[in-house]
Design a protein that fits this description.
alpha+beta, Alpha-Beta Plaits, 6 helices, 30% helix, globular, disordered N terminus
Length: 220
């Protein structure tokens, strides 16, 4: 009879079981505390993100479901014909836009999703990255267009006019489904050939997901 070997990579292992209570969900969690690697062990490193995984999709759906009461407007940001093919460059553009947004609208709540434009790519014009945002207030389209054009270094008047979109959210459940599920099912989240280091596919402002945690049991 074969015996299962015991993993001895960690000593003084303590496991905590708790309940997380969100606005619209309850989730059970089991995690470890005070993990002390034995001498000579090597801690794991987070792997590079290659695509929009099921785990990531579940986590984003959970966050959006528990912040649905916040979102009132949506907006989109697109690139011109000479779009970047580097994830870190796109990430920096997104970071600069969010910083400008927060300076212009103090206390604004936001979330974003990354996708690759299929209609444009299928027409032979490249699968350019673009961002879909949701916010808790209206943001002026001209301000969005001017800010985005400045950040990406575009002087094309046509790009400024067509690169941004803002609208009021009329169906919160529908837009959440689009952000989490539809964009994940179609080719929007397929990383196109030649695009390097895609990075994260979504983000949400820290601290806006309300949650209380209740400790259930401590096992040693």
């Amino acid at each position: 009879m074969a015996l299962m070997s015991l993993d001895t990579r960690y000593i003084d292992r303590k496991i905590v079981s708790s309940v997380l209570v969100y606005r619209n969900d309850v989730r059970f969690r089991v995690h470890e505390l005070e993990m002390k690697p034995t001498p000579g062990s090597v801690s794991g490193r987070r792997a590079k993100i290659q695509g929009y995984s099921e785990k990531s999709k579940r986590r984003y759906r959970e966050y959006l479901r528990n912040t649905a009461h916040l979102w009132s407007h949506e907006m989109q940001l697109s690139y011109a014909w000479d779009y970047p093919t580097s994830g870190p460059t796109v990430k920096n553009h997104r970071k600069l836009f969010i910083e400008s947004l927060q300076r212009e609208h103090k206390g604004i709540n936001w979330t974003w999703r990354l996708g690759f434009q299929q209609k444009r790519g299928n027409n032979g014009m490249g699968y350019a990255p673009h961002f879909h945002f949701m916010t808790d207030r209206f943001v002026d389209k001209d301000w969005i267009a001017d800010t985005w054009a400045r950040i990406v270094g575009s002087s094309d008047a046509n790009h400024r006019k067509a690169s941004t979109h803002v609208d009021k959210i009329r169906n919160t459940d529908g837009i959440i489904n689009y952000m989490v599920n539809y964009m994940a099912k179609d080719a929007e989240t397929n990383v196109p050939e030649g695009f390097e280091d895609v990075g994260r596919f979504w983000g949400i402002e820290r601290g806006i997901v309300e949650c209380e945690e209740y400790l259930m049991k401590l096992l040693v």
